[in-house]
## 1
Amino acid sequence: MTYKIVCAVKNNQVVFTLPPDFSDKKMVTVYVNDHIDERAQKLELLRMAMNDPIFNADIKEVNDDFNAIDSETL
């Protein structure tokens, strides 16, 4: 059986209670995945990009390119 739960880390420790289906188990394997922190880091980089003049200039350039062809039809 596989059981997935997202837990908070406090004092560099994780504590969680297993569901009743695990009551007869003597050993389990625990995987630690910090993908939540990676997502938070990526979101922070996106927030920082909003104030980056080079990034904003690139976005404006791409937007201008598309504005030029928006009125075209096939």
## 2
Amino acid sequence: MGKIGGAGLLVIGIGVAIVGWLIQSDILSWLLDVVGFIIIVGGIIVAVAGLVKMFSGKDGA
């Protein structure tokens, strides 16, 4: 921590303040909902791609 200058501490302080603000606001719950939806859709796409690959006989198990 001794090698971090004043500018580095300023950036870290601003970052911590922003993270604290996000945790306190409703934006975080909205972002978590969006990320959860994206993960669910991504999982469905990967599963469908796996099924297609499996039934088409290309490198399927």
## 3
Amino acid sequence: MHNISDNIYLVNRVNPLKHYSLNRYLHNEVAIERAATMNDIRLSIYNILMAHGFHLQLNGCDYLSSLVARYIVKSDYTEQGAISDIATSNGANNNFVIGCINASIARNKKFIPTACKSLGVEISPEKTSITDAVTIIGAIFKIYFNYTVDTEHFAEDDIPAINFSRAILDHGKR
């Protein structure tokens, strides 16, 4: 599992003891770690995306969900490597995946205001890059779900899809 305790949205949640109350304990703390499966993690990420105004029917939402899952699970996570893995497993190229994720984030006008309330911190409205969205959703996951898995293996990487753009439209020239 990736140690996301250095996530800037989690670091800001440190509560001094003098401000500690029953209300903060019940509603403002990080959830207890629990063992789960990869499907549980994906389902919880989809729940977060749906609750924060994302349109689940868009490809970008599916790609974003996979990217956040890799951010949470992979100990050797790099954004570019994860995007390449997602593109390969879906039969697309990196630019298409990046474009779909960016469009999904841009279409969602409620994301940042809702995330501010979920995290209990102020987030700048300009935080709309892929890296920012993954970091914010990862922090929300850690606070509200905090699942752990024993494996870092993604089953979707085992059977990569065919890139039909390369195979058909470009007549296999590349």
